[in-house]
């Protein structure tokens, strides 16, 4: 029966077990019975049972049904309540979308994945949605006169649901999802699981800014933990982060895929020739006025087209409970701190420059990258040996860096800046080992701020002589010292909200 609330709700007995099933939003057509997991569809005031929904896998999300918060959109502060939950499976892992019922009677979607959140609302393209094969990854298209870059085009399927839901795609059947991003940080998703395709548009949000009430208690969630035996050697493995989708065994170094949840099949891949990180897993460093813990480490290598030699670099995945994830990168030309971008910088494939947030960047290198070793936990299903196409850019003025990483189904950008090696050592209270952190950025000229003019001339003369001798000793092009970067985002190495 209906009640007399401003937004008319509807309640009726479940056709499967007789328990009450409630619809709070007029836009909801489906619901999952909380008692028998029956999936029911509403037709007028009649409920019909369509079958039984698969059990949710425990992703240890801090969110839950009936949690409430507030979102600012178009200058208005809108209260909302989470009334439904959808779990999707893609080629590279799973993610969750929460259906938000807003006070104005409309709906929104709070997408949760990779330690990041994006809040979107239904939108219009202003034209018929193009076929998904026409939206190639990397191309630019206009939506309402605004340019958007196609960041991802992936095949996914709905695997489970909970609560009150809009029109659903057939359970378990694959369909395409295309994600576009603008230069100013907007995200636009086209869901081809229904006809016509559903369009959502919004921006990244921080969980603390949503002022959520009724979420899971953080300490209780930590106490649960996740522990299991390694599928390769049987040693105990404990997963510390709720968002981890892969980890490594501390005993045999095997990479373990957690994307199907601990109740699913745990796939693993053996690793040999372990790399010892300079900064130990679990270490805490101070960056941007906040503590960040090292939760993951990976070594990657790259090779430019036409070059016979590889170059390598290392990436530390850092985590802060309130701010999510960032990457600390250790390359031959120095250290940098970067994070995935929500928006897509302005760039034409093959161009020598890009722009982001009003700043110009020039291309410094393009290369094929490969993950060669990993340790710790990651918020994406990391794969040893996975290859990506990378392009690195440096700010025309300043220390800013920009990176682009491409896989067959996704392009991810990341943005950050270079930092002094001494600052990295001090951040982790390893000043006594500062020499181990020293890179090109801390060479004799850069480090010795008080040297005299004569000393500087002598240093430059010695460097010149060494260069002449090296060039005379070899006529072949060597690998030399190389930059790295990677684009620290997407499923290949992090970021993205799906």
From TrEMBL:
Q: Keywords assigned by UniProt? A: Membrane, Transmembrane, Transmembrane helix
> For this UniProt entry, which segments traverse the membrane?
445-469
Domain of life here?
A: Bacteria
Q: Which Pfam families match?
A: DUF4178 (PF13785)
DUF4178 domain location is 79-205, 281-420
Name of the protein described by the UniProt record:
DUF4178 domain-containing protein
Organism source for this protein? Diaphorobacter limosus
Q: Which taxonomic lineage is given here?
A: Bacteria, Pseudomonadati, Pseudomonadota, Betaproteobacteria, Burkholderiales
